């Protein structure tokens, strides 16, 4: 699928839809709105970002070999398990996942802050499964994992089934789990209450009911001595809801006798200001407030990145010549992994959309999403470096991104070299604002301003008949 073509078709479809219900009697306002739509006022240039390459942290088998994990983990945590091949392939961990697993082995709580596609769930599922294997299954609820939405709980249940059920006869999985949300009906709930799982997947509303309902007292009893309490997507709990969750966690720890509970939080973003160390201190403070347990900065684990391409100095004359040749040439991007990886333009793309070195440290961090076209965009920068036309730069960048999204280091690699995301935002049609002046000097704006630009004493207002759609400006 060509995501750039898909984006173009979506914009065109939305544009036709918007224009179909806008009825404007005033020709000057009609002209203003048409111009704004032509300029993409309701669908700004998309933002583009590469999923970075994570620093490898060894395999599950390596952790089993050094005694950090139970031997059965090597059988459970395999990739590409199927009926034809129950053994699958070794599961390669990222460094931040290995750090989280070892932190749990120390009996310490932790927060993992890493982006989408970084395997945050494995960072707590692996130590939970290891604990159940060592402690023994069937000894009550040993871990509760709380999700902000049922969709996330459903997705996690499917992933757990791949690891914990494939390769074992029905009913003989060494670790039992169950989803306990509002989706489960009476018979299923009774089954969970009468035979509690080792791992319970739920949401915060059900956890609240879990602690207060008479019919769930059996589950509260089964969860006494709980070892893991996990809250996924911590950044969703803020403001009043964050206070509610903090009190819920305290009640949960008190009800389940949990002074030794390992509290785990995951989040894509919780702090963005300052250096990575500053952010760790901020996240540790938030985690302390939420969980009611002391978190130190070393209990906040961030993602550890590495470059997929060699870093080059794009200001060097020879590099500029190579970039210019790549744009001017009609040759397609290299189709084999190594030639693509070492191409100067691939390196420039990773530096532009993927990673950057944190000032003051050698740590690699994610680049903020950036527009492909427009002012201060990637295309404008490449055009400045190479002297090429923006359209040519845009075309070659799209071709390299599409080719990179298909190339993998090996058959067992989970992600391509350029797994990129394109963020397109759409807004609804709104109001046209006008000064209350004669038609020939009337000033129009698509956004609400306090006054006419350059004339602070001339307020902007809007005239719209009652009962009309906000987009139907007369």
Write the layout of secondary structure elements.
Elements: H1 3-21, H2 27-38, E1 47-51, E2 53-54, E3 56-59, H3 60-65, H4 73-76, E4 78-79, E5 89-90, E6 92-94, H5 95-105, E7 110-113, H6 122-135, E8 143-147, H7 150-164, E9 177-179, H8 186-194, E10 199-203, H9 204-212, H10 217-222, E11 228-231, H11 239-255, E12 262-267, H12 276-291, E13 300-302, E14 305-306, H13 317-328, H14 337-341, H15 344-353, E15 355-357, E16 364-366, E17 370-371, H16 378-386, H17 390-404, E18 419-423, E19 433-435, E20 444-445, E21 460-461
Parallel strand pairs: 7-12, 7-13, 8-10, 8-11, 9-10, 11-12
Antiparallel strand pairs: 1-17, 1-18, 2-14, 3-6, 4-5, 15-16, 19-20, 19-21
Helix pairs in contact: 5-6, 9-11, 16-17
Short characterization:
The chain has 474 residues and is of the alpha/beta class.
Strand content: 5-15%
Query: How do the strands of the widest beta sheet line up side by side?
Result: 9-10-8-11-12-7-13
Number of H/I helices: 17
What class would the helix/strand composition place it in?
A: alpha/beta
Task: Please describe the biggest sheet, giving its number of strands, its sense, and whether it closes into a barrel.
Answer: 7 strands, parallel
Summed up, the domain count is: 3
Kindly report how far apart the N and C termini lie. 42 Å
Task: Provide the CATH topology of the largest domain.
Answer: Rossmann fold
Poorly predicted segments: 463-474
- What is the CATH H-level superfamily of the largest domain? P-loop containing nucleotide triphosphate hydrolases
- Percent in helix: 25-40%
């Amino acid at each position: 699928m060509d995501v750039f073509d898909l984006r173009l078709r979506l914009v065109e479809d939305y544009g036709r839809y918007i224009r179909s219900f806008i009825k404007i009697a005033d020709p000057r306002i009609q002209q203003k709105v048409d111009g704004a739509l032509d300029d993409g006022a309701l669908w700004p240039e998309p933002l583009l970002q590469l999923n970075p390459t994570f620093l490898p942290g060894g395999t599950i088998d390596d952790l089993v070999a050094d005694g950090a994990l139970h031997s059965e983990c090597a059988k459970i945590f395999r990739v590409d398990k199927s009926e034809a091949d129950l053994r699958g392939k070794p599961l390669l961990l990222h460094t931040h996942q290995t750090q989280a697993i070892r932190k749990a082995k120390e009996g310490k709580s932790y927060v993992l802050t890493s982006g989408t596609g970084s395997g945050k769930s494995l960072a707590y599922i692996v130590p939970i499964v290891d604990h159940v294997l060592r402690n023994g299954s069937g000894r009550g609820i040993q871990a509760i994992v709380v999700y902000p939405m049922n969709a996330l709980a459903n997705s996690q249940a499917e992933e757990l089934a791949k690891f914990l059920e494939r390769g074992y006869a029905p009913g003989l999985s060494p670790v039992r789990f169950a989803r306990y949300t509002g989706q489960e009906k009476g018979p299923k709930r009774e089954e969970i209450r009468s035979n509690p799982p080792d791992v319970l997947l739920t949401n915060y509303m059900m956890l609240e009911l879990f602690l207060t309902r008479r019919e769930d007292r059996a589950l509260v009893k089964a969860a006494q001595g709980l070892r893991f309490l996990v809250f996924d997507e911590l950044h969703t709990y803020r403001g009043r809801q964050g206070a509610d969750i903090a009190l819920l966690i305290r009640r949960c720890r008190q009800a389940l006798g949990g002074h030794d509970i390992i509290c785990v939080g995951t989040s894509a973003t919780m702090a963005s200001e300052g250096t990575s160390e500053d952010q760790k201190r901020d996240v540790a403070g938030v985690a302390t407030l939420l969980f009611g347990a002391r978190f130190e900065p070393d209990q906040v684990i961030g993602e550890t990145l590495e470059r997929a391409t060699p870093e080059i100095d794009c200001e060097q004359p020879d590099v500029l010549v190579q970039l210019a040749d790549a744009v001017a040439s009609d040759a397609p991007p290299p189709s084999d992994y190594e030639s693509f990886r070492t191409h100067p333009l691939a390196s420039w793309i990773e530096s532009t959309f993927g990673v950057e070195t944190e000032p003051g440290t050698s740590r690699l961090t994610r680049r903020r999403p950036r527009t492909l076209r427009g002012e201060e965009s990637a295309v404008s920068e490449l055009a400045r470096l190479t002297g090429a036309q923006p359209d040519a730069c845009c075309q070659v960048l799209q071709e390299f991104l599409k080719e990179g999204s298909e190339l993998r280091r090996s058959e067992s690699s989970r992600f391509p070299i350029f797994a990129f995301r394109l963020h397109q935002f759409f807004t609804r049609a709104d109001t046209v604002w006008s000064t209350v002046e004669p038609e020939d000097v009337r000033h129009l704006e698509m956004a609400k301003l306090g006054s006419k630009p350059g004339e602070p004493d001339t307020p902007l207002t809007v005239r719209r008949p009652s009962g009309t759609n906000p987009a139907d400006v007369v």
